[in-house]
Each structure stands twice: as C-alpha cells, then as structure tokens.
Amino acid sequence: MGKDRNWPKNRLQTLTLGFAVRQAKVRLTLVSHQLRDIDGEISTCISKDEAIAHKRQILTSIPGVGAVTSAAMLIKCPETGTMTLANSLRRCFGLHALAATGAI
User: Fold this and answer.
1) Rg (Cα) of the chain, in Å, rounded?
2) Are 59 and 65 in contact (CB under 8 A)?
3) Where are the domains of the chain?
4) So what's the pLDDT on residue 98?
C-alpha cells in the first residue's frame, strides 16, 4: 500500500498532461483513504483484545514507537509481550546486528 501511495506522489512531480495529473491525484486520495481505513481497523482489532492492547501500550511508551510501528511489531512478532530480555526483541525484529555494533 505504501508503494501505491508513493507512486502517484512521485508521478505528480513529472506529469504535465491535465488528465494524467487529475488521475494521479484521484489515485493518491483513494490510497490515502484506504490506508487510513486499514490503520483504523487494525487499531480497533487491537483495542478489542485487552492483552494485545496492553502490549501496544507498553510498546508505544518507547520513544519513537507509535501506533503503526507497534501494530507492525505485534503482527510480526506476537510474543512481544512475553519477552523479558531486550536481546530477544532485537533478534525478533532483526536489530541484533545493530546492537552488536553499538548503533542501538
């Protein structure tokens, strides 16, 4: 979906034909609405499950982790709330190499 949103944005920078510009704007608006709806549906599903909502609350308390990132983390690695070691989280999300270099 993100690619679907970026394509018309990038395309608008080079289009000159009025019809093509209008079509790209329509496509951008449609994809933006679809992404908003999907984000809302994911948030609703998370909110319905008390345990998952609690995990989201913990994740979003981390600076730089917002609703979308926390949802992606919970989807990719649902055991997130049961992990007790930061290293386990790093491995789950592919950050262990960055941790080894001192980047995080």
Assistant:
1) 19
2) yes
3) 1-48, 52-104
4) 47
Q: How far apart are CA 104 and CA 100, in angstroms?
A: 8
- Locate 66 and state its tokens: 């917002």
DSSP class of residue 13?
T
**Pairwise CA distance, residues 3 & 64, whole Å:** 23
Q: How far apart are the first and last CA of the chain?
A: 29
Q: What is the pTM of this model?
A: 0.62
* Nearest residue to 46 (alpha-carbon basis) of 56, 37, 36: 56
Separation CA 65–CA 73 (nearest Å): 10
Averaged pLDDT for residues 3-20? 77
Average pLDDT over the chain, rounded to an integer = 78
| The pair of three-digit structure tokens given for residue 59, joined into one six-digit string | 């994740």
Residue 42: its pLDDT value, please?
Answer: 93
pLDDT tens digits for range 77-92: 766 655 555 566 666 6
Average pLDDT over residues 3-14: 73
